[in-house]
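Dear Dr. H.,

I hope your travels went smoothly. While you were away I took the liberty of generating a structure for the chain from your last submission, since the lab meeting agenda had it listed for discussion. I wanted you to have the full record in hand beforehand rather than looking at slides cold. The sequence, exactly as received, is reproduced here:
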Amino acid sequence: MLFWHVGGTTAFVRYAFRDEAMDLRFLVFGALLPNLIDTPIAAAMWPLWQAPRLWSHSLLFSATVMVLVLLVTRRGPRRKQWMLLATGILLHIAFDTMWAEPETLWWPFLGWEFTRGASATFGVHLAGVLRNPWVWSGEAIGLLYLGYLWRASGLNDRRARHLLATTGRVSAPIDRR
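The corresponding predicted structure, in token form, is as follows:
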């Protein structure tokens, strides 16, 4: 799920923190990172674990990233940027409803196994995901928010896209109510 994670995470963090200067590049990368890590490994190692979500969908991974950010950075804008990466990872875990997969969420504290998928192969698992109406609903919600953000930020304009690419900022104001 791409748009669900990017759109949902961006919407949640923009309205929770109300910081128009935040660097969305770090947040979006964090929101995608668990799938960027686990999906290729799960596909390659399916016969061993039969699990689509592995280490980076655990709270241990998210907590480790947060602790590393705190240890490696000093207070200020750099730490704020990198903490958005950790926040994106944590929200990815929440948006994937990982509490329904406790073996993976709490890995390795509940054992060394991951929550197994019901499919015999990764291809069958992927086909099931692509037929799931909840997946398409989440994708639609995320895409709708990203479309709103595109329009509200004037991202049709090359300068607005350049601002996003170089600073991670968008010009869409956040309602301060």
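Two observations you may find useful: The two ends are 31 Å apart (CA to CA). Residues 3-167 form one domain.

With kind regards,
E. W.
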